[in-house]
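Reader question, answered in our methods column.
A reader sent in the components of a multi-part assembly and asked whether the whole thing could be modeled at once rather than chain by chain. We filled in our standard form and ran it. Here is what they sent:
COMPLEX SIZE: two components
ENTRIES:
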Amino acid sequence: MSGGDTKVWERSTPAREAALAAFVLAVSTGAAFVLRPHVAATNLVMVYLVGVVAVAMRCSRRTSMATSLLSVAAFDFFCVPPYLTFRVSDYQYLITFSAMLITALVISTQTARIRNHAAEVMAREARNETLYRLSRRLAGQGMVMDVARLAAEYAEEVFEGRIVIFLPEDGKIDFRRRSSDRLPVPTSEEPAAQWAFDHGEISGRGLPAMGTASALYIPLKGARETVGIMGVAPAARGRISSEQLQLLEVVANQTAMAIERTRSQHAAEVARMRMETEQMRSSLLSAVSHDLRTPLASITGAASALRAQGDKLQPETRQELLESIADEAERLSRLVSNLLDMTRLESGVELRRDYYPLEEIVGAALQRMDRQLERRQVATSLPDTLPLVYADDVLLGQLIVNLLENATKYTPEGTPIELTAQASPGFVVLEIRDRGPGFGPEEEKRIFEKFYRGRSDGSRGVGLGLAICRAVADAHQGTIEAFNREGGGAVFRMRIPSKESS
Amino acid sequence: MKALILIVEDDPQIRRFLRATLTAEGYLYYEALTADEGIQQANTRRPDLILLDLGLPDHDGLDVIRQVRDGSQTPIVVLSARGQENDKIAALDLGADDYVAKPFGVGELLARIRAALRRSATAAMPEGSALRFGRVEVDLDKRLVRVGGEDVHLTPNEYRLLQILLKYPGKVLTQRQLLNEVWGPNHLEQAQYLRVYIAQLRRKLESDPARPKHLQTEPGIGYRLVVE
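And here is the structure of the entire assembly that came back:
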């Protein structure tokens, strides 16, 4: 991480470096002094060279070069006779000095270069790591402000200083739309930020544009437009290095891209929802208007016939018209109820759940369906040992009524309907089975969709009954599914949470 | 003597159809269009039964029940919209006798009116007599219950529950009312007890407990003992 390196650099102030160099020189000289009686003078050069390498590894190029020069001088002074003078008795030593100096300088330069290179590589790696983590963190944020907040927080972790991102509103930076309050922008600096936003270039502190500002303003340039401004106030009075500036710019770009991505996701989501709502509304309207009008037309027709020609009509005809009025009105009432139920369920109705014997809910549903089930054989088999179900009795009753209604609508008169239940861990599994035509291929998946209507002769509904069933099952954290029955017919199976589950 | 019915309803179309129906059945009626008017007429006309719409322009229909019940046992049948379970329960708890949910058919309405009138006529149930409904015989003196001629053992609470239901044949009793009568006012929230006891009673008295003929559930509201 670059922070750690920066710290090493900070500690290597010139004074510290000088001290280190002096220490190394002293040690080298001490060693040379001890070795001098036993070793040829030219070999003592090596002792100094080791010292130069040691200094070069820790200090700047300038210090290590100075150390090189001083080493040559020390070597001359202490190790070349006459001792303790810079004079040289044997002029061959001049070759030793030159070779020593050149070697020391080369070592200093190379070591410094290698070290710089290593530092660069590490810095680059650290930067990539930073950006990678930043982009990971910014990905999948649902809100633009969340992206801005996370990016600013992240940038602050990396650079010591205060960083705040400002977002625009109607083509101008809105200083109230900010990621945090850590960098209050005085009104006098607002033009600097706005300038950076308008021109897409950095402005502020020490730069050609708006150089008198106290902070830096970096534009967040996305692929299409500038999406905001990053304000940077360094912690120390020191200036921001060009390397740091580069990194800040890269972070700004990443942030801009993340903001753009979030915006377009948001826009796409809104568009998708609008389309779905639109589609739903139009299919609802067409279904509802058709289904409301048809019974209304029959009622109006029959009633007006009775009113206008009452005495001229045969008694049987009158009876027929009256029956059609009653039937159609009942259908209309069912339809409105279904629509209301669906709306209620979709708007997230609160369940009034309690523990009920399933028998009681089934019993009430069968009672409600009494007339429609007159010509049907309904076989119920509910074991006495069933646990209580945890349900909203009215809604679960509605679910069962809808399934029974569905069965009467889509299966021929006189065919049997079976209703059975059994316990399974945490649930009661209720099945309603018929001997009707069953489902067409893939149809069993679609029947629970809103406004889906199965093929049937004569029976008309809006296609909400089973959608309500699914909504009720979902609201209970239960499930409902449908499949073809062995030997012909349909099975609806639902799982309702039971007493053991809670 | 023809029964006198007070209609408290603001919707003219519904009043029109109620008028037609009641006339055809030979009932006499008065009409009130607001809650205030209804309360006033209930006091002055002394009707045998009140048909009460809950959604009135001036006050809540529940206020009418409160006022009327303050000193009179005139049967009240509530006309309510579907889905207003809470209103129905509140009306029944306040002392309404029954309800019909709009839209309702004439048959259903007349049945409720007849049952309520009959109950109020025989309000003082002859103690000590034997009662019958379907295959069930109850000897109130000896506390004996027979189904299809065979003795059936009921626990004290089951018997108590059956007794309450028998006291108001055909009337919807809310869960609260039943809990209060059988278990006392400290157990009003324990509807689960009630359901389990009803289920047990059904198993003992009904031939098909999943399709009860007598101990009927009013979903979300309570229970009704159907005797005919």
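What stands out: Chain B touches chain A at residues 82-83, 85, 103, 105, 191-192, 195-196, 198-199, 202-203, 208-212, 216-220 (CB under 8 Å). The mean pLDDT of chain B is 88.
Send us your own complexes using the same form.
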